[in-house]
Amino acid sequence: MRYSKLLLPTTKETPAEAEVISHQLLLRAGFIRKLTSGLYTYLPLGFMALQKVSQIVREEMNRAGAQELLMPMVQPGDLWRETGRWQKYGAELLRFKDRHDRDYCLGPTHEEVITDLARRELQSYRQLPVNLYQIQTKFRDEIRPRFGLMRGREFIMKDAYSFDVSDEAASESYQKMYDAYQRIFARCGLEFRAVEADTGSIGGSFSHEFMVLADTGEDTLVICKACSYAANVEKAAVVLPEKTPVQKEPAELTRVETPGMKKVDRVAEFLGVSPADIIKTMVYLADGEPVAVLVRGDREVQDVKLGNILGATEVELADDDTVWKLTRLPVGYIGPREIPIRTVADQEVMRMVNAVTGANEKGYHLTGVNPGRDFTPDLVGDLRQITTEDPCPSCGGQLELTRGIEVGHIFKLGTSYSQAMNATFQDREGGEKPFVMGCYGIGVSRVVAAAIEQNHDKNGIIFPLPLAPFQVILLNLGLNNEETTRAAEGLYEDLQARGIEVLYDDRDERPGSKFKDADLIGIPYRITVGKTYEKEGRVELRRRRDGETTTIDYDGAADHVASLIEDELSRLR
């Protein structure tokens, strides 16, 4: 491709709307343009990068035995009602009516559609297992679309769905996808980790997220330094040490005046205790219903864990006015003793002795509070955020926290969708059984953004070779020199003849502008034909990742670069 013929509108200025580096560079490098909030047009180089990711995904899915199809983006509301998700999915599901007043939605995912297909077309165990996938546009009506391709409303996704005869067979399908995802992200040239994760609105019993490691990631990951354990912080289980004998006797319950003391730190200082000696009582709304949540004073509630133990779709901390309206209790002085709403306690709280809590009375706290004697919660479980002070749930080793960007997610769905939709097959004995399902997603467009978050410098993008729109950018710095131009044109043809994807910068621009654009768009290898060729018959070869620059003979340049590219791609296969 000749640069002079390419729609590639690069800019020097960083757009004010772009908060993260991938969004900034995708706009500056001319890969995308915003249509409206959360919706982007992919310009030629952006689309090429998408195609690179899609091709790797397609090859590995096919290699794992999956079959590609394409389902409608518009889905009938009746299917979603069968699974109950028409009501449960929330405002991210963009619903609308057709001219006949029938309900439809734009697909954020395709569990209902694929299950409907399976119940129509798969009747016997002889047809199983089956894994069907598509690469298609999805739409989720994000309340705050941001970060460009990282969290848009419309995006490109690969979603796959497996159908099996049993849990054991479904586990085999899950493992095949896990292995395929490992190959996909390795081939993309990304540094990533597979972590245990919450299943969220998709449902199911077990899942892994595939995270590209990047400081700008939205997700916090928990990784063990001693073993292979890795989990999203939403899923990471807190394992308490073995219970030791109580070292102190339960004290008498005492009401203490604490005027103006609403915060844990102030109460601790005033009473001369540690925040770890305080039981923090917060009121949450779980699907609209109030619930008192108890954690140690130096801990934080993990909302996803809370929602899971309550069986709630949505949980949120209630504001002060809502707390007063629902409980008639003063914020800052709420405690679990004789509280008029349901309570759920973190497992750690139940081991506390002679704790401090609110007294449910403005300006007062209680000391000498003991779980079991002075209050009994309705539910107890692992509710809090894990910390690096906690032991690894797997081996007891030391944990570290890092950041990541979710680019893939695989789920064991079980029979939740097939039972809800009466999707069954005939087993060997002639009985009817529901399909055991799995689903497997990759955010194709998000992979492009995540790759940039992980691979960039002050000058622009540094694409991993497998994802780069072009493998080589060829600069002609002697447009006014007939011999140099003839050499650049000949090298352009030689590179193409060897199957190398090359962008030929044949523009009448200053060398500095060409160098800056080459760095900005992130092409892995740069070949410059200029004064070195005129004087010595050699060309300059520069590697974008580390800036290593060498001069090589013009006559062998195409073969040399072809060998470099083949070696690099071979290491990633």
From TrEMBL:
Its EC number is 6.1.1.15. Belongs to the class-II aminoacyl-tRNA synthetase family. ProS type 1 subfamily. GO terms for cellular component: cytosol. GO terms for molecular function: aminoacyl-tRNA deacylase activity; ATP binding; proline-tRNA ligase activity. Catalyzes the attachment of proline to tRNA(Pro) in a two-step reaction: proline is first activated by ATP to form Pro-AMP and then transferred to the acceptor end of tRNA(Pro). As ProRS can inadvertently accommodate and process non-cognate amino acids such as alanine and cysteine, to avoid such errors it has two additional distinct editing activities against alanine. One activity is designated as 'pretransfer' editing and involves the tRNA(Pro)-independent hydrolysis of activated Ala-AMP. Residues 38-464 form the Aminoacyl-transfer RNA synthetases class-II family profile domain. It is an enzyme of class 6 (ligase). Consists of three domains: the N-terminal catalytic domain, the editing domain and the C-terminal anticodon-binding domain. Keywords: Aminoacyl-tRNA synthetase, ATP-binding, Cytoplasm, Ligase, Nucleotide-binding, Protein biosynthesis. HAMAP family: Pro_tRNA_synth_type1. Pfam families: HGTP_anticodon, tRNA-synt_2b, tRNA_edit. InterPro entries: aa-tRNA-synt_IIb (IPR002314), aa-tRNA-synth_II (IPR006195), aa-tRNA-synth_II/BPL/LPL (IPR045864), Anticodon-bd (IPR004154), Anticodon-bd_dom_sf (IPR036621), Pro-tRNA-ligase_IIa (IPR002316), Pro-tRNA-synth_IIa_bac-type (IPR004500), Pro-tRNA-Synthase_IIa_type1 (IPR023717). The gene is proS. This is Proline--tRNA ligase. It catalyses: tRNA(Pro) + L-proline + ATP = L-prolyl-tRNA(Pro) + AMP + diphosphate. One of its GO terms (biological process) is prolyl-tRNA aminoacylation. It comes from the Bacteria. Homodimer. It is found in: Cytoplasm.
